[in-house]
Specification:
Layout lengths: L6 H8 L6 E2 L18 H12 L5 E8 L2 E8 L10 H17 L3 E7 L7 H5 L1 H14 L5 E9 H8 L4 E4 L5 E2 L17 H6 L5 E2 L2 H16 L29 H9 L6 H8 L2 E5 L12 E8 L2 E8 L6 H17 L3 E7 L6 H5 L2 H14 L4 E10 H5 L7 E3 L4 E3 L3 H7 L7 H8 L3 H7 L22
Parallel strand pairs: 3-4, 4-5, 5-6, 5-7, 6-8, 11-12, 12-13, 13-14, 13-15
Antiparallel strand pairs: 1-2, 2-3, 9-10, 10-11
Helix pairs in contact: 3-5, 5-6, 11-13, 15-16
């Protein structure tokens, strides 16, 4: 079991020195032994206060984290297991309200066993209050970055934790909807850990206590610091088009374009992201049980002092979880007013039986919908294979560009020949007929231009908008 820090020790771990300013608890008059008259409840609260030095299970206030101001919500597990009651709800509501009034991000530092039994259903309904405050803050375009401490269970996990935009977790932390005393007796304890939640797509990263302040500070700078987000009602400028990293020169034939895009040594997403961003952090998982780290890279990065979100295919068949993660990324960027860069590089969506069972069609539809609904500008660069709808889903209508070593096709030439009942020797002529070369795509109006290798802004065709 990892070391359990107190609420104030956790605040001291992440906040800049002497920057924390605590909120006063809103006044509330409660009947003896609470709303249910639970015998001994007042005595339990008094013992918890004496033991911890706190008056409730959360400590809330503002602080700077690596220079960025935020509202911190730190749970004190030593106070009745960090449980949520009516007074906890009062503090949480006040914290979220302050965040919206002052346009600050919210950082819940969670360590809770769930709702407080001594307050019955009135304790459970605090989850509705928390969910409402979180939703209002989301609508205001303010980020929420949760840190999962040990333990994060019950309603605290299901609202403040899993409901956050970015979820970080401490190593070995107990994380799960069911607490340790209410699980089935034969339940695998490994399923209720931060590491398991990361593997299941419900957390973005495991961060050690020594690294937490730095990582949290980077996230706050990207999502809420200088150059991040947008002024309400103002559309941000589009992300600039990346420069090409591979071979220059035009492909001689359609099949040559396909071969160049499939070449083993061609630069892939990692190389493009490294060249494009000064700093970047990934998000992980689709929040419904899956990850696709080998097929889709998503996150936020800093370029020339501005924050840009990215969703990048890696050259493999994209899994359903990869598409859902990309849709999550685009929707989050849209809420925060951050422009998006997408890199297209896939032979197509995964089409095996497991992908169908995981809902690949619905997952691709999510990305099409997220791109279509986005209010922030999306910039797309085809850096390799553009295989059918699984590639087109990520492409921005009217702002898609191509590198010289890429192609885009309604379907792979081999599959097109098979569908048309053509012999294998007809695959190459079929590639020409499909007009898949970058310059063909410009002539067809599918892409806006072919990006030169020498400079990010040097392109053929009209200049990118923004």
């Amino acid at each position: 079991m990892p070391e359990r820090l107190t609420a104030r020790e956790t605040v001291a771990l992440v906040a800049d020195a002497d920057s924390f300013r605590e909120f006063a608890a809103p006044p509330r008059k409660s009947p003896p032994d609470g709303p249910l008259g639970w015998q001994g409840y007042d005595a339990s609260r008094a013992r918890a206060a004496a033991r911890t030095g706190e008056h409730e299970s959360v400590v809330c206030g503002t602080a700077r984290v690596e220079g960025t101001r935020a509202v911190l919500i730190a749970f004190e597990f030593g106070f009745l297991g960090g449980s949520l009651g009516e007074r906890t709800g009062d503090l949480l509501e006040a914290a979220y309200t302050h965040a919206r009034e002052h346009r600050l991000p919210v950082v819940p530092l969670i360590a809770t066993g769930g709702s407080r039994m001594q307050e019955g259903m009135l304790a459970l309904t605090q989850l509705q209050r928390v969910a409402r405050q979180s939703a209002l803050t989301r609508e205001a375009g303010l980020p929420q970055i949760a840190v999962l401490r040990d333990p994060t269970t019950g309603g605290g996990w299901a609202t403040l934790g899993a409901g956050a935009d970015i979820v970080l977790a401490l190593p070995g932390a107990q994380v799960g909807f069911a607490g340790s005393r209410v699980r089935p007796p034969d339940a695998d304890p490994a399923a209720y850990t931060a590491e398991s939640q990361l593997a299941a797509g419900s957390a973005d990263a495991i961060v050690t206590p020594a690294e937490l302040k730095g990582v949290l500070g980077r996230w706050l700078r990207l999502l809420a610091g200088h150059g991040a987000g947008a002024t309400p009602g103002v559309t941000p400028a589009a992300a600039p088009v990346p420069g090409a990293l591979g071979r220059g020169g035009a492909s001689g034939s359609g099949w040559e374009a396909v071969e160049r895009a499939r070449a083993v040594g061609r630069p892939r997403a990692h190389a493009y992201l490294d060249a494009y961003f000064d700093d970047r952090l990934p998000i992980s998982g689709d929040r419904c049980g899956g990850t696709d780290p080998g097929g889709m890279l998503c996150g936020f990065g800093e370029r020339d002092g501005r924050t840009v979100a990215y969703a990048a295919q890696t050259g493999t068949a994209t899994r359903p979880a990869g598409y859902r993660t990309a849709a999550r990324l685009i929707r989050l960027a849209d809420r925060l007013g951050v422009p998006v860069l997408t890199l297209v590089d896939t032979p197509g969506a995964a089409n095996d039986a497991e992908a169908e069972r995981q809902g690949v069609g619905a997952a691709v539809a999510e990305v099409f919908g997220a791109v279509a609904a986005a209010r922030v500008p999306i910039t797309t660069l085809v850096i390799g294979e553009g295989g059918s709808g699984g590639a087109l889903a990520l492409a921005a209508p009217g702002n898609t560009w191509a590198t010289p070593d890429s192609y885009f096709s309604v379907i792979a030439p081999e599959l097109a020949a098979a569908i048309l009942k053509r012999p294998p020797e007809e695959v190459r002529p079929t590639a020409d007929q499909l007009r898949v070369r970058p310059r063909d795509l410009v002539e067809l109006g599918v892409v806006q231009g072919v990006v030169a290798a020498s400079a990010p802004r040097s392109v053929t065709g009209p200049p990118p908008p923004g």
